Predict the structure of Transcriptional regulator, TetR family.
Amino acid sequence: MSSDLRERRRRQTADDIQRAALRLALRCGFEALTTEAIAAEAGVSPRTFFNYYANKQAALLGRPPRMDADEACWIVHSDAPLLDDLVALLTGLVEDGARLDRPKIRMVRQVLDASPELEPLFHDMLEGNTRVLAGLLQQRLGMDAPAEAELIAGLATGALSHAVRDWASADDLPAAEIKVLLRRRLQAVCRLLCA
């Protein structure tokens, strides 16, 4: 079996488990959710469940796209405006169509709304991308600007999260619109800061 096929199967199993967790959480509530019930709903063994997710919280939230510092290092040496580079880099994280699953994103949002105790876990999962981006921005902006790099990284990844949420809540927006939504969010903040 080729490694590509194996990886596709792994992604599909992870997705099946997450969807099962989301369905059960929306049906029964987060507190009533168990890893055994999720495994049964997904049609996998509890052992298989734990090969993919550490706990029910992780299964609900899934695996967000991860920024690879080596692949993203182009932003350090780019001469383009920082805003343009941020939009290109961040939308590159979600351009993979498998990651842009509108119904699944909506279900995650519904679970987070119903179980606010999961919100910090969700933000912690996204924090890895913010840290990677902050490190890259610090290299680009200079080592004397670590606070600014962290602030810009947090703002930019937060804006991406909002753009994806806005896209998912609309029925008629194409995925390419995320780039436009992200740019608008960042430009609006720039205007407010400079007003």
